[in-house]
Write a structure and sequence with these properties.
alpha/beta; ten-stranded mixed β-sheet; 12 strands; 325 residues
Length: 325
Amino acid sequence: MRFYSLLLILLVVCYSISDAMAGAVADRVRTGAVVRCGSVERPGLAGIDSVGRWTGLEVDLCRAVAAAVLGSPEHIEYHKYETPLDFDAVRDQRDDIYFLTGSEIAEQKLAGKVLPGPTVFVESLNVMVAAKSAAHHVADLAGDSICFMIGSPAERSLNAYFYALHKNWFRRAFSEDGEMVDTYTAQNCHAIAGEITSLASTCLIPGVNRLSSRILPEALAYFPVMAATGTGDAQWSSIVAWTVHTLISAERPETRWHAGGAGAMPITAPELRLDKEWQHRVLKAVGNYGDIFNRNLGKDSPLKIDRGLNANQVHGGLLLSPFLE
């Protein structure tokens, strides 16, 4: 009898602890009136503009969550993860949303600390050449020199690419990004490899020779950037996920056969303490995913990156979120 009494007490205690933890992040956000987000800096995704304000696709997603929970997209703080010490914000759960890649999670040993959420951007590794270059495909660079950051995914992808072609290439490795870009703009290497967001930004830097550049069409590799949350609060993870899904599904066009826009996936979830107008408020604050992409990375931005795999599934891309079938 005593055993069963102790067991019942333990179950009640465990349930109470679990119940107390549920919603802890949302409560903290509402009490502090701020959503705290963080990531590595990437052009068009997260960076500081000329007036010291954080901008980018990931920043707008952070603003969208603030609009959903706090009623205003302006109630955010954004933090940069540059050194291993910066990632302590993830380990210690000091931020509320983390925009991370698989490599960042693995290298920083964060798998037990975060719940990987929806993909918010499909990043790619590409190669860029001078506009006047005779190379129109990566394979055309066999035997030529290519600049890259030493030990980077770009280096591994280049090795794999040319190994598969049974062709050689001349390696120009760098440990400093600025030195690598200067070497490329001076055309002391035939091409430069890296993430497409970084290459698109580098393309805007003509250097002393006023170099004009273009990115070759083939990607060496693709990988997702995810909206991750801490593992301890399922309610908060659900809020973040449904906010991202709302932005993606809202880009679906409305037709005679299915709902579109804000009605593509209406979410009524009083359990999450979200009012009935939260989705409309989010879309009014930041627009749908296509709007966010275009102003930060696409046709309305200096980077002019094509939607590509970041297009909605209805337009041939990979971005697919729940919708009313």
